[in-house]
Amino acid sequence: MTRDAASFDRLYRESADPWDYETSAYEAEKYARCLALLPSRRFARALEVGCSIGVMSESIARRCDSLLGLDFAPTAVERARARRIPGARFKVAAVPDAWPEGQWDLIVLSEVLYYLSPDTLDVVIRQVVDSLAPDGACLIAGYLGPAETTLSAPEVESRLLAALSAARPEHDIRRDADTTWIAAVFACHGPQSSGA
Known about the structure:
Strand order of the largest sheet: 3-2-1-4-5-7-6
Shape: globular
Oligomer: single chain
Strand content: 25-35%
Number of helices: 6
Order of helices and strands: HHEHEHEEHEHEE
């Protein structure tokens, strides 16, 4: 990570909503447009990596039977839990070490992967590929402006989509973008290829 859990947790202790997720029209529009990329169906099991204080989680959970949100900042997870989102649970965890077991019908990676080192990103991408259900969907979104990260949003999106495409030849990719963010949804249409 280019920033550690302690530095993020300090931000959440100093401000209840450091990026104005709860009040920003920009964030609300971005969430709506990102989620509009998803296939129009309900998801049984969803995983959100980097759930922060759970604002986007509320919208994701409406489309899912169960949602597991992960964040490595304990204060953010406390705030997400305080929302009492039906069908959602939140856990303090860092990937790749605490990647949860099982298959996921939906994996959401919003503004999180570019904080990883290139080598750690490779591990997480493998975890996504291996745990995405045969008919699952993966949403990746990233900020295009200046950030304290090693990797850029286009780099992480390209690497993730390339790995998923190699493993799941039968798929669709839907994209959206604005001047400051990009998003894509990879929707599988079958199990991994035997060479993946």
